[in-house]
Amino acid sequence: MHLAAILDSLAFAIVFFIAALMARKRGRPRREIKSSPEPFVISPCAGCELAPLGGLETRLNMAASARVVDPASWSRMLSIFPGKFSFAFCYGSAAFPQKGVAQTKNNMLDVILAVDDPLSWHRENLKENWRHYSFLRYGGPYLVNKVQKDFGAYVYYNTFVPYDDGLMKYGVISTDRLITDLLDWETLYLSGRLHKPVRILQEPTPEIKRAMSLNYMTAIHTALLMLPDVFTEEELYLKIAGLSYVGDFRMIVGEDKNKVANIVGAQLGEFRKLYSPYLKLIKMVSWNEATQTFEQEPGPDAKLHHLNLLPKSLQSHLLKVWNKDGRHRDLEDVLQAIGNDPHCSGFIEEAVASIVWRSSWGQTAKGIITAGLWSAIHYGSKKVIKMLKSLTTTQPSLKT
């Protein structure tokens, strides 16, 4: 047996052992969202009274910053895959400019494909694109699907896949899992990725659109709880963009230390287009034209308002953080207490970090076997080099 195959097999055994230790409770019901005809507006969440967007279609709001540069090129790329997608988008430095990151053909394009039936999709994709997969392909679609749905953040990535004259990394997730993460922040993996501008390759279904709208809203509520009473537009977007990196172990080793500032700095206009309509719907925060800053109400009532509108998983982790002393207070009492606590933002950050830490470890461990050990080492080494370079780079200014 070749050394690469031996190492891949060893990695497979190690990662499955780690994943078993990190297994979390499954089957948590997600927030339900009701269907409505197009054009759709933001669906009210529990305890939240939202005004319509004044006729603005959500797809315009979501996609204003996400138009593809070369639609024909993206269409050709999607044509190599079988079946239909409920949503497809790309992201990263190959899709959007980032400060401090050169735009070259060497940048690997990151793509996400949401499908209704991952097992059937992998079965067809293995027939058409056998070489995209690591040694797991020898286990067939059932093994691939099991690895996707049982470990990490429910995304299965194939890396270093050639397309046109470049490379891409594409991840597959079930439609149901994507919606659950958007609504509840179970992993804050793709829901966190979708807090930031993306390039839409295949328009999302109406149900995914509604879940994305709620994801934007809850990102704002979460960021407001972590921001001071007066803050700038840039500070708001930095906080939102940084949510999915809080607690991510890759930010300790393997990621550019200026990553969040690089993203927001180069895409400030895109963030503005994405979030401006939703900010108009948020209570207890206003824009001061004279000072060019946002001002939010500082009292416990305002904090409790935002706390009540957080995603289910984040509220659950807040409950665990507050009950560390062994007492068993219910959610209503805990949210009330956190809203009155001067260290409210610290509790929010700790709860977010606990979600991200688990999913980032699990997904990275899974990446060793889905990419193959050699590819994982190659990919990881590039990340580490970027991180080391960032340590000697001044954090970019966000002014435009």
UniProtKB/TrEMBL annotation:
Q: InterPro entries recorded for this chain? A: Tam41
Compartments where found = Mitochondrion inner membrane
**Biological process, per Gene Ontology:** cardiolipin biosynthetic process; CDP-diacylglycerol biosynthetic process
Check the record and name the Pfam families matching this protein.
Tam41_Mmp37 (PF09139)
- Main EC class of this protein? transferase
| Source organism (scientific name) | Rhipicephalus zambeziensis
Membrane-topology descriptor: Peripheral membrane protein
Q: What is this protein called?
A: Phosphatidate cytidylyltransferase, mitochondrial
Q: What is its EC number?
A: 2.7.7.41
Q: Would you say which domain of life the source belongs to?
A: Eukaryota
Report the family membership.
Belongs to the TAM41 family.
Entry GO MF terms: phosphatidate cytidylyltransferase activity
Q: In which pathway does it act?
A: Phospholipid metabolism; CDP-diacylglycerol biosynthesis; CDP-diacylglycerol from sn-glycerol 3-phosphate: step 3/3; Lipid metabolism
Q: Which GO terms describe its cellular component?
A: mitochondrial inner membrane
What are the record keywords, sorted?
Lipid biosynthesis, Lipid metabolism, Magnesium, Membrane, Mitochondrion, Mitochondrion inner membrane, Nucleotidyltransferase, Phospholipid biosynthesis, Phospholipid metabolism, Transferase, Transmembrane, Transmembrane helix
